[in-house]
Amino acid sequence: MGIIWKLATQGRKRKLRPLYISISLCSMLLLTVFLLMGCLKKTNDAARFQAYGRYRGAAFRVTDDVKTALIQHKALLESGEMKIYGTIFKEDLIAGYIGTMDEHMLSLGNIHLKEGKLPDSAEEIAMESSLMAYMGIPFHIGERVVFEVESIDSTTGQLVKKEHEYYLSGILQSYTEYWDTDGALLCGAIISDDTAKTEQMCHLFFDSIHQNEEEMQELKELFSVRSGVRLMYNRLAYPEEGGLSYYLEHGFAFVLTFLLTEFFILLTLAVVFHKKQYELQVMRLLGADRHMLGIVWMMQGILVWIPSFLAGCFAAMPIFCIILFFYQRLGYGELQISYSPMLFLTAGIFSFLFFLLGNAYPLFLMKKIPVIPKGKSLTRYYTVHRHKRLKRNLNWKAFLNCERALYRKQEVYEGIFCFLSVLVMSCGFLLSYEKYREYLVTVSASQYDYIWEASYPAGLNKEQIDKIHQLDSIEKVDIFTIVEEINQEKLWFTWNGCEQDAYRKLMADSDEAIHKAGMPGRLVVLPDEKELFDYYANNGLGKANWENFLDGKEGLVYLPDLVVSKTGTITYMGNFGVNSYHVMGEQAKAGLTNGEMIQIKMGVTTDILRCGSVLKSFDHYFQESRDFLMPGDILVSGAFMERFLGERPKVSTLVMAYGNNEITYEITDKRMSEINQDSRVIFQMKREEKEQARQRFINTLFLTSIFILFLFAVSILLSFHHWIERMKHDSQRIQIFQYLGMEKKHIKKLYLLPYLKHITVLCLLANLLLWGVFLYEKIQFVANYEGFKNQLQFAFRSGTVEFPWILYIGFQLVYVMLLMLVARFSFQKMISNKN
Amino acid sequence: MTDIVLSCKDLGKIYGTKQNQVQAVTGVNLKLQKGKFYCIIGKSGSGKTTLLHLLAGMEKPDSGTVWLNGVELSQLTEVSLARLRRRHMGFVFQDYQLLPELTVEENICLPFLLDKKEIDFDWLKILLEALSLTELQNRYPTELSGGEQQRTAVARAISQRPSILFADEPTGNLDKKTSEELLDFLLKLHRKYDLTILLVTHDLDIARCGDEILLLEDGCLKTVMKADEK
After folding, report:
1. What is the 3-state secondary structure (H, E, C) of A646-689?
2. What is the mean pLDDT of residues A564-569?
3. A565, A582 in Cβ contact below 8 A?
4. Among A255, A644, A740, B165, which is least packed by CB within 10 angstroms?
5. φ, ψ dihedrals at B212, nearest 5°
6. Predicted TM-score (pTM) of this structure
7. Which residue of A380, A408, A739, A750 is the best one to mutate when testing the B interface, meaning the one whose CB has the most B CBs within 10 A?
């Protein structure tokens, strides 16, 4: 052991230097990523807590006995009450609710005062800022506030609407718009308990020992028989649950880090082994067996690993601080710092595991070390050439080949590294781009936080639509008129050869017998907006013309492919990537082609229209909620509808109202429902979705950027190191050529140019592979398009038109140029010593 | 004057930084005549190899000028200098400097390849015979002894019929007997082909074989003497 220790500890400085650097860098990367992920998670959790409070569950409209049962339940750790006494009105419309909250409630809900204090006398009131904005109350503490409140009269027990006057004691941070209460009312104005009247309802918010919704079932069972009481689990307040997609998305950073780290360590160990090969051969000659060599090698490695890991940990700190600095400077918000010894320990364990794993290769090579040193390896060319050589066959080309053969192995290593580096960097870039697209879909393209759909077929009358227009909180209204049938006369259409069309048959069979000769359909009138028309037209392959469309000469026909399952269920493959996958069965495609004439019939009314474009699916990219189309829908202009229907009434309308978050959605939702009492109102809150998408995008972009930069730096450093080593190794050889009068340009041709060609070709190859996969994935999204050519065209358009080529090619060019510069600099340095 | 192959005037070379300068070669003046065998002797570190490199145009002098066949080396471009070295200079080193991937024959032909010239196989045959390498021509350097390798290096150096052959301690790695054999080969070639040789050595016995001995001390050329004078 003594000699092994001595061998392991001595002479491990210079040749092991790359290993020191490599392990330090990898440890630094691992720790940085762990710290960063920890911080991002903590920030995310804090944001969730900030918005959704810390209560685990809430029981709405609780009665006294339920309340008592819940409070006394052993699973409950803490509970808070919210009592609602009345409804606040503004101009006869509901504006919010008034009530009281105890201290526990404020704490559990993380409801803070932005300004002022909670009311402590009967004259005071604290209000939510969004409610104040809606009511038009100035944001001044002490302001006199007057509004109408409908509450239960304690004497008569009847609901009475009376004017109340308060003085504003505090402004509460808005919370009602974030909380998911499934329609349960929350109070936006707090009064003191002294003002307490007869409560209309009481909610109990609580913290419990339950970790998820399933565990909370036992509480639900307590009052399952009682009507009116509802219990909800506050899933938004807790760390996101780890579904597969969650792990795939967040695991990307880890997978990439692990791959990168392992590859880097493995490569360095291979380089170090190559350097120490002669030394190992000598040891073998002096009597060391392979087992002993292995122990010495591993001991040396561990002795290198310990200081390197520590150095990596130290280096990670400033790097992490820089990341934090840039994170904040770039406007991504404040990151909550999260560090624990566990993170360091985990980074250490992973770093050591990767180091051990990377050693498998050198230990395998160690088995091949001969007892007698072979001297300089003569490459495979030597042996091949030796047996197959022809007399006097040496020429310039053969000589160059011979020289190149010497570096083939090294070139393979370099090639793999360069190829993988470009692949990983480009992959990261593409991933960021995809995230950016997703971000655009959910954030940028979606200009509004809230959408209300007054759904078809009930429709809205003009008066109702006017009322929606008048709502302050509604910023945009889209109205689509839809005609399917009038007076029990159904609409249908035909085209040339449609009688025998399998697609048509499938659709008609599922409908009335009246359609036996045609395709059942609907007329959808688009608002006269070119942008909207372009959105639909761009999703088809035909050449639809806006002027012809306006004149009622052309329409767009939506005929997505159908899949008939074995059980007979018909599924249509609508939007990109949504229904294209997972649907197994026989496919049916419509025979209608772009530019073909269609005949539209409804009772005795008939008209002819040119099909400007057949729409198969929609790119989510531009969509908000305009995915209401059904197979057989014909998009036409108002002019066509006038011509076709004439004096007949157009009753069915689909109204989409969009709004933003200046006032609480709850109020607008209520008003929308009041306007449209006979119809279903679908409410979509986009804000949360947008915020999550934004956060996801930023996190992914941030992490990917770090990876790309790290890989970039490592790759350049490694290349530099490699070139220095290579030039040292080949200095004598280059000197021979110089003595023999070889010109510099020829030496360059021999050493430098092949490398430059090599990396350029590999870079192109990596791109080719990546783009192949990328386009294949895009083709999968448009698999329902007829013909590979069309699929390719769409995939190409979808994947490349808006792709940031300049940035993509630019960063690759910078990378390749830097590699070239490094090689050239090292080469120049080497040969500049001699002429 | 036409007999002068190589000459230099006030040749000087300094290594190192300002604080730690080493005057490797100082004010060397030389005129080497065609067909003569010159030996440079001196202790280790006296600047022999540096002088050789300066004369061969491998390194740029800090002062002075070198002429080869009347051509001033400092006036030449890099390409011309490489061409001059390829066609008019031959080099032999202590550690042979053969390419292990090439056979003896291929190593000897290498200067032809670098000059993109047709190989003169008649001359090659003569060379192989003259240096007793005919039997070894298809062997690789690793299959040869030190003396055989050095003979190959000599054959390679004179394959282009250079104006001058620079030999930097060619016997440094060889035993006495092999050294003498190599020296015999060099002398034979020198006499038969009127080859100008500049040989660097620290062995006086070897230096005595030359026509003239140049003594170098601390970078300065002290004495030029006839071999028989010593």
Report:
1. CCCCCCCEEEEEEECCCCCHHHHHHHHHHHCCCCCEEEEEHHHH
2. 64
3. no
4. A255
5. -135, 145
6. 0.57
7. A739
